[in-house]
From TrEMBL, chain A:
<dbReference type="InterPro" id="IPR020574">
    <property type="entry name" value="Ribosomal_uS9_CS"/>
</dbReference>
<keyword id="KW-0689">Ribosomal protein</keyword>
<dbReference type="InterPro" id="IPR020568">
    <property type="entry name" value="Ribosomal_Su5_D2-typ_SF"/>
</dbReference>
<dbReference type="GO" id="GO:0005743">
    <property type="term" value="C:mitochondrial inner membrane"/>
</dbReference>
<keyword id="KW-0809">Transit peptide</keyword>
<dbReference type="GO" id="GO:0005763">
    <property type="term" value="C:mitochondrial small ribosomal subunit"/>
</dbReference>
<dbReference type="GO" id="GO:0003723">
    <property type="term" value="F:RNA binding"/>
</dbReference>
<dbReference type="InterPro" id="IPR014721">
    <property type="entry name" value="Ribsml_uS5_D2-typ_fold_subgr"/>
</dbReference>
<keyword id="KW-0496">Mitochondrion</keyword>
Automatic annotation (TrEMBL), chain B:
<dbReference type="GO" id="GO:0003735">
    <property type="term" value="F:structural constituent of ribosome"/>
</dbReference>
<keyword id="KW-0496">Mitochondrion</keyword>
<dbReference type="GO" id="GO:0005763">
    <property type="term" value="C:mitochondrial small ribosomal subunit"/>
</dbReference>
<keyword id="KW-0689">Ribosomal protein</keyword>
<dbReference type="Pfam" id="PF10236">
    <property type="entry name" value="DAP3"/>
</dbReference>
<keyword id="KW-0687">Ribonucleoprotein</keyword>
<dbReference type="InterPro" id="IPR008092">
    <property type="entry name" value="Ribosomal_mS29_met"/>
</dbReference>
<keyword id="KW-0809">Transit peptide</keyword>
<dbReference type="InterPro" id="IPR019368">
    <property type="entry name" value="Ribosomal_mS29"/>
</dbReference>
Length: 384, 423
C-alpha cells in the first residue's frame, strides 16, 4: 500500500501521467463526479478502501511495472552517460541519490528506484483454473505451500535413509561424513518463512518445520541436501567485533604510549596515555581540576583506571571538543578505556568489556516532534 | 615529651641490649611499650609550635596552634572552611609548607633599617595561599610584632551597604561598617601592644573632640571602633547593638568622624613610628587579596555611576601603606582570584591579577609560588584526617582509597578538604 503512495521513480521516468492502478477506483469516482458535477460524494458510492485487505496487484500489472523499470533503467543509464547494458542496482542507487538529493533523515522516505519484485509484496497468483479446480493437490489444506514444503522435506529424509541403507549394504557406511557448517547462520524466522511461502503459518507449524529440519540434520549423509538446507538459513550478522586494541608505540624517550578516540552524544575526544609513572592529567592544555570543576566528571575520568587498579601509573594528555561537560567526560572515559586496552591482558580486557567501559553510549538527543513541546512532553492539556 | 623523643630514637638500640641487661632496662622497655602507641601520629605531626623554630625537617607536618595564640590572632583572616574545621576538631593545625617557611626565613634574615620588603603569595585556587599568609602572621605575632591583618581586601570594594561622603576629604567615600569591624578585630589582635605605643601626632576630629599627641593608640582605636554614625540599618544590626550596650567604655554615641578616618590615621601613625630608628616594635602588614586594590569595584554611587577605587578612603590609605617608603617591617600579601571582580577564572599569576598599575606599584616584590600538595604533604593531610576520624568511609582507609582521593582532588588542598567533607 505504501508503494502505491510513493510514486516510484521508475514509473516516473518511464511514463508520465498516472500509473498506479489502485488509484483507478478513486479516479473513476472522481471522473464520475466531474461528469455529474456533484460537489459532495454520496456515501453509497464511497467504497471503504481498507475493507478489501492489502492491495491486490494483477500479474499483468506487475509485468508492466517490470517493463517500465527496465526501460527506466536504460533511460537513467543514458542520462548518466553510462553503459545501459551493465547498469547495476548500486549504480541506480547512486544516480538517483545524485539526481534527487534529499535532506530527509529517514532513509526509507528518500526517492528510490528498485526492481518491482522488491517493492510490491509478493502475491499469490490465482490458484484455480477456469473450471474452478485448484492446481495444487494440497489446495484444500489451506496452507498449500507449507504442507508441500513439509512433504518435500520428508521425502528428502526418506531419500537420505535409503542412501544410508544402500551404503550399509555395500559396507561403506561411515559416521564421519562432512558436516554442514551451521555456525555462521541461523534458521529463518517465522515472519521470513511466511514471506517465502507467501502465506501465513501458525507458530506450531513453524516449530514442526524446524523440528523436521533438525531431524534431517541429525542424520549422517545430510550433506547431500546441503543446498536445500542452506536455502532456509540466513547468515548471522557479524559477531560483536573483536575490540580493536590500539597499538602501543614508544616515543623518543622510550616511554610506551597509546592513542585512542571516544565519542558520546556530540563530543569527540582523543587521549594519549603514557606509561610514565606520574598521575598527571591535562585536558585541552589545562589542568583537569580546572577544566572539570565538578567532582562527577572527575570520577568519570577516574573510573577506568581505578577499576583496573592503575591509578598512579599513567599520564594522560586529552583533547575534547563539542557537547556539554557530562558528555565530554563520558567521551574521555571511553577514550581512556580504549587506550588502556593495549596495556592489559586478555582477561582484564574481558572484565573491562563486561564492566561496560568499552561500550559506546548510544543515547543521543531525541528529536522534538511537531504537536508536542519537546521529545516526549506534550502541551498542557486543557479540558476546554 | 623529651622521653618520648628519646625512646623513639633508642627503640632500635633497646632491642639489641635486651638480652644483655634485663632489670635495668626493663623499665625503659615498659616505657617504650607505652610510648610506642602515639608514635603513628608523630609522622605527620610535629610538637614544634613555634614558627621560628620550624625548619625543613618539619616540612609536611602539622603543628598545633596554642589556643592562647589562636583567639587573638585570627578573629578574621582564616578561610571560612578552615574556621569550621577548627571548631569541629577543637584544634587549629597548620601544615608546615615550603612557601611559608621560605617567607619566614626571609623575615628572620631581613634588614629592618631598609625599606619594607613585599612578599606576594600566588597560586591556583585553593592551593593554600591564605593559610601560608596566616602561618607567616603567626610567626610575626610570636615575635611580638604589630600585626595589621586585612582579611580580604575584596570585601572592601564590593557589597558596601553604607557609603558616606568623607568629611575629611569631600571627594572621597567612607565605609563605616567595614572600618569598624576591622578596627575591632585589630584591637583583639594587638591588645597588648596598643597600650604601649603612643600616637605621634594630634588628630582633630571635631571642634570638641581631638586626640592629642602621646595618647596610647588604644584610645584612638577605641574611638574609631565605638563611634560611628548609627543609621537605621546599623541600628537594625542586633549583634552590633548588643555589643554597644555591653561595651563599658562607651559613654554615648555622638556624631563624630567616621571610623574610616581613624583607620587611615592609625595606618599613618604606625608607619611613621616603625620607620623611626628608636622604635621598639615592628610592623607587619598582611593583606589577603591585594589585587583588589588595583582592580575595579562594584560599589555604586547614588547616581548609579561606579565608584573609582581612589575615592574610597580605606583603599586609598591601604595603598599608601603598600608603598615601600617606610622601614622597620614587612608587607606580606596574597593574590586571590576567588573574590576578585572582573577577572577570568583561569588567572592566577601576578601579572594577570594585579594588572599593569598594580604590578608597577608592587614592583619590586618577592613572588612566592604556592603549589598544590606534594606527595608527602598529601600523605600528611590524609593521615591527619584519618587521625581525627574525619574519613568515615571504610574504603577511604585503604591504599586504593588514598589513590582515589589523590586523583580526584588532584592534590589541591581545598579540593581534598571538600571531598573528605562528605566521606
Amino acid at each position: 500500500m505504501a508503494a502505491s503512495c510513493v510514486r516510484t521513480v521508475g514509473s516516473f521516468l518511464g511514463k508520465c501521467g498516472n500509473c498506479s492502478s489502485s488509484l483507478n477506483t478513486v479516479t473513476s469516482q472522481l471522473s464520475r463526479q466531474v461528469l455529474s458535477r456533484q460537489i459532495c460524494v454520496s456515501t453509497a458510492l464511497k467504497k471503504n478502501l481498507a475493507a478489501g485487505g492489502p492491495e491486490k496487484f494483477t500479474v499483468e500489472f506487475i509485468q508492466k511495472q517490470v517493463e517500465e523499470f527496465d526501460i527506466g533503467k536504460r533511460h537513467l543509464a543514458n542520462m548518466m552517460g553510462e553503459d545501459p547494458e551493465n547498469f547495476t542496482q548500486e549504480d541506480i542507487d547512486r544516480s538517483i541519490a545524485y539526481l534527487f538529493p534529499s535532506g530527509l533523515f529517514e532513509k526509507k522516505a528518500r526517492p528510490l528506484m528498485k526492481h518491482p519484485e522488491e517493492i510490491f509484496p509478493k502475491q499469490r497468483a490465482v490458484q484455480w483454473g477456469a473450471d474452478g479446480r485448484p492446481f495444487h493437490f494440497l489446495f484444500y489444506t489451506g496452507k498449500q505451500s507449507y504442507y508441500s514444503l513439509m512433504h518435500k522435506l520428508y521425502s528428502k529424509i526418506l531419500n537420505i535413509e535409503k542412501h544410508q541403507d544402500r551404503m550399509r549394504a555395500k559396507g561403506l557406511f561411515s559416521q564421519d561424513t562432512k558436516e554442514i557448517s551451521l555456525d555462521t547462520s541461523r534458521w529463518l524466522t517465522k515472519e521470513e518463512l511466511e514471506v517465502l511461502l507467501v502465506e501465513t503459518i501458525s507458530s506450531n507449524n513453524y516449530d514442526r518445520f524446524i523440528q523436521l529440519m533438525e531431524r534431517l540434520l541429525s542424520m549422517p549423509y545430510c550433506n547431500m541436501e546441503e543446498e536445500f538446507v542452506l536455502h532456509y538459513r540466513r547468515p548471522l550478522e557479524a559477531r560483536s567485533k573483536k575490540q580493536m586494541v590500539p597499538v602501543p608505540e614508544r616515543d623518543d624517550k622510550g616511554v610506551a604510549f597509546s592513542t585512542s578516540d571516544g565519542r558520546r552524544k556530540t563530543s569527540n575526544s582523543s587521549v594519549v596515555l603514557r606509561d610514565c609513572g606520574s598521575g598527571r592529567i591535562t585536558v585541552n592544555g589545562q589542568e583537569y581540576l580546572h577544566y572539570f570543576p565538578v567532582l562527577q566528571d572527575r570520577e568519570q575520568l577516574m573510573f577506568p583506571l581505578q577499576f583496573m587498579g592503575l591509578l598512579g601509573r599513567f599520564d594522560l594528555q586529552c583533547t575534547v571538543s563539542g557537547g556539554g561537560r557530562s558528555s565530554q567526560a563520558g567521551a574521555l572515559r571511553l577514550a581512556i578505556s580504549r587506550a588502556l586496552l593495549s596495556f592489559l591482558s586478555e582477561g582484564e580486557q574481558e572484565t573491562m568489556r563486561q564492566a561496560g567501559l568499552l561500550t559506546p553510549d548510544p543515547r543521543v538527543r531525541e528529536r522534538k516532534k511537531p504537536g508536542q513541546e519537546g521529545a516526549r512532553r506534550k502541551f498542557t492539556w486543557k479540558k476546554r | 615529651m623529651a622521653l618520648h623523643r628519646l625512646s623513639f630514637r633508642l627503640r632500635a638500640t633497646v632491642c639489641h641490649v635486651r638480652t644483655l641487661h634485663t632489670s635495668g632496662w626493663g623499665q625503659q622497655q615498659e616505657a617504650v611499650a607505652v610510648e610506642s602507641e602515639p608514635e603513628p601520629f608523630s609522622v605527620f605531626r610535629t610538637q614544634e609550635t613555634d614558627p621560628a623554630c620550624q625548619s625543613e625537617k618539619h616540612l609536611g607536618q602539622f603543628y598545633t596552634l596554642p589556643s592562647a595564640h589562636f583567639r587573638p590572632l585570627f578573629p578574621h583572616g582564616l578561610p571560612y572552611r578552615y574556621q569550621q574545621q577548627v571548631k569541629t576538631f577543637n584544634e587549629a593545625c597548620f601544615m608546615v609548607r615550603p612557601p611559608a617557611l621560605e617567607v619566614i626565613s626571609y623575615l628572620k634574615k631581613a634588614d629592618y633599617s631598609k625599606p619594607a620588603l613585599r612578599y606576594l603569595f600566588y597560586g591556583v585556587k585553593g592551593s593554600g595561599k591564605t593559610m601560608s599568609l596566616c602561618h607567616a602572621v603567626h610567626f610575626c605575632y610570636t615575635q611580638g610584632w604589630v600585626v595589621l591583618h586585612i582579611p580580604d581586601a575584596h570585601l572592601w570594594v564590593k557589597n558596601c551597604k553604607e557609603l558616606l561622603p568623607s568629611s575629611y576629604n569631600s571627594a572621597r567615600f567612607d565605609q563605616p561598617l567595614q572600618a569598624t569591624t576591622w578596627l575591632r578585630n585589630f584591637r583583639t589582635t594587638n591588645e597588648h601592644l596598643l597600650s604601649q605605643i603612643k600616637t605621634k601626632r594630634r588628630y582633630v576630629w571635631t571642634k570638641r573632640e581631638s586626640t592629642d599627641e602621646g595618647r596610647p593608640l588604644g584610645e584612638l582605636v577605641n574611638q574609631g571602633a565605638l563611634k560611628c554614625r548609627l543609621s537605621p540599618r546599623l541600628a537594625a544590626d542586633r549583634s552590633l547593638m548588643k555589643w554597644i550596650r555591653e561595651e563599658p567604655q562607651l559613654h554615648g554615641i555622638s556624631r563624630v568622624k567616621s571610623s574610616s578616618d581613624v583607620v587611615g590615621a592609625l595606618m599613618k601613625d604606625l608607619r611613621l613610628q616603625s620607620s623611626q630608628p628608636g622604635a621598639d616594635f615592628r610592623l607587619v602588614v598582611a593583606v589577603d587579596g591585594v589585587n583588589a586594590l588595583w582592580g575595579r569595584s562594584t560599589i555604586k554611587k547614588e547616581n548609579k555611576s561606579a565608584v573609582d577605587l581612589e575615592e574610597l578612603t580605606l583603599i586609598h590609605n591601604l595603598k599608601k601603606l603598600m608603598k615601600n617608603d617606610w622601614t622597620g617591617g614587612a608587607i606580606i600579601t596574597t593574590l586571590s582570584q576567588t573574590g576578585s571582580l572582573y577577572t577570568p577564572k583561569s588567572a592566577y599569576l601576578p601579572q594577570e591579577l594585579l594588572g599593569e598599575t598594580g604590578f608597577d606599584s608592587m614592583d619590586p616584590f618577592i613572588p612566592v609560588s604556592v603549589p598544590n600538595y606534594s606527595e608527602k604533604e598529601f600523605e600528611s593531610a590524609y593521615l591527619y584526617y584519618l587521625d581525627r576520624k574525619w574519613l568515615q568511609h571504610p574504603q577511604s582507609r585503604t591504599e586504593d582509597g588514598k589513590k582515589e582521593l589523590s586523583f580526584l582532588s588532584s592534590k589541591n588542598p581545598s579540593m581534598l578538604d571538600r571531598i573528605c567533607g562528605f566521606l
